[in-house]
Amino acid sequence: MRRLIFPGLFFLLSTCLAQEAKTVRLADLQKLMNEKSEKIQVINFWATWCGPCVKELPVFEKLRAEGRPDVKVTLVSLDLDLDPNPAKVYRFISKKNIQAQVLLLDEPDANSWISKIDKEWSGALPATILINHKTGKRRFVGRALEEGELETYLREIQ
User: For the segment 102-150, what is each residue's pLDDT rounded down to a tens digit?
Assistant: First the structure.
């Protein structure tokens, strides 16, 4: 009986403690991107079905875990485009123990909003935008980040 109770209790607790991603629309995301902040915003667009996206998520978690008071990391999931049920994303967040803020973008027609995020963006995933409102500098990266690149881009926009 104990063999059933302890694993079940662990699963229940980990599910209850997992963060739930807030569902947002384009206007909410644009507001976040234009929000005058003292912090550098690092916004990553990803999906659970995107191998390169999943591979680079630890880069953002490491940055968040470093506790840099000058940086805010936001992970924007595009999973709702293919599957309107957010449960898969919630399970993924829990399984991977993602602590950075996760948003679920609920915009069905990607062709209508991708260029509103960044004119350089083709829509390919992953994609990352770094925004420093204090210096007015911004950097868009339309591919997976390599080891050490995020730190380089953060220095460039400071």
Answer: 999 999 888 899 999 999 999 999 999 999 999 999 999 999 998 899 9
Query: 60 is written with which tokens?
Result: 């953002």
Whether a cis peptide bond, with omega within 30° of 0, leads into 84 is no
pTM for this predicted structure: 0.86
Contact 25, 107 (CB under 8 A): yes
In DSSP terms, 129 is beta-bridged to 43, 140
pLDDT grade, residue 12 (50/70/90)? very low
d(CA 102, CA 100): 6
Query: Would you give the distance in Å from CA 109 to the centre of its chain?
Result: 20
> d(Cα 41, Cα 9) in Å, to the nearest integer?
37
Q: How far is CA 9 from CA 14, 88, 96, 155, in A?
A: 9, 21, 19, 44
Tokens read off for 69: 């008071």
Angstrom distance (rounded) from CA 36 to CA 151: 22
Beta bridge partners of 138: 131
For residues 46 and 53, the answer to whether their CB atoms sit within 8 Å is yes
